Amino acid sequence: MAPTQENDDVRPLVRPPENPSEIDEALAWHDGDARAAIATLLADCAYLRSQLDLAGRVMGAGFTRGWRPNPERE
């Protein structure tokens, strides 16, 4: 057997990365279902936007020196 030929009995170990990314963690949380991960992220985004809107309504202008939260990216 040539040294570069792979043997069925000896295969390299497939190891997950040492530091999985947040994307990998989100997919793992949803058992690899990308659509479920995206749906959860969109629901979380909608919830955070509603909380930001609520905070903007009840916050006094003096408290923030005139700054108001903006739900849109600038």
Give the gist of this structure.
This protein is mainly alpha-helical and 74 residues long.
Structure characterization notes:
With about 70 residues, the protein is mainly α. It has helices spanning about 20-30, 35-60. The radius of gyration is 24 Å and the shape is elongated. The chain starts with about 20 loop residues before the first helix and ends in a 16-residue tail after the last helix.
Write a concise keyword list for the protein shown above.
single chain, 74 residues, mainly alpha, 2 helices, 45% helix
Q: Tell me the helix content.
A: 40-55%
Q: Which structural class is indicated by helix and strand composition?
A: mainly alpha
What is the molecular shape?
elongated
**Count of individual beta strands:** 0
SSE string, helices as H and strands as E: HH
Tally of contiguous helical segments: 2
Low-pLDDT stretches are none
**Mean pLDDT over all positions:** 79
Largest sheet: none
Strand content: under 5%
Measured distance between first and last alpha carbons: 61 Å
Secondary structure blueprint with pairings:
Layout: H1 22-29, H2 34-58
